[in-house]
Amino acid sequence: MKKYRLINNRGAHQYEFQLENGSAMVEYIKTKNGEMVLTHTEVPTRYQKQGVGTELVEQVLEDIKKSHLQVVPICPFIADYISAHPQWKSLVVKGIDV
Prior knowledge:
Largest sheet: 5 strands, mixed
Structural class: alpha+beta
Distance between the termini: 27 Å
Number of strands: 5
CATH class: Alpha Beta
Number of domains: 1
Strand content: 25-35%
Oligomer: single chain
CATH architecture: 3-Layer(aba) Sandwich
CATH topology: Aminopeptidase
Shape: globular
Helix content: 10-25%
Radius of gyration: 13 Å
Strand order of the largest sheet: 1-2-3-4-5
CATH superfamily: Gcn5-related N-acetyltransferase (GNAT)
Number of helices: 2
Order of helices and strands: EEEEHEH
C-alpha cells in the first residue's frame, strides 16, 4: 500500500513526496532520447530509516516504466536499490551495470 502521493515536479526536474514537515525528492535529467538520469535522492533526516526513500524510488521507477523511458541511475541510493531488486534492471540503459 502506498503511503505517499508521487508528484512529478517537471519545473524543478524532480519527483517529490510532500511530507508533513518537508519533502523527499529524486532529482532527474530527462534526455531527448527517452532516458531519465536519476542524479540525487534526498529524504529529510526525521524521515530516514522509515522506508520513505524506498517507497519514493519504487514509485519513481513505476512512473518511468509506465512512461516507457529508461533509467541511468547516477544516484548511489537508486543504483543500490536496483541492484537489490533485479526486476527493475530491465529499465536501466543497456551498457550500465548496477
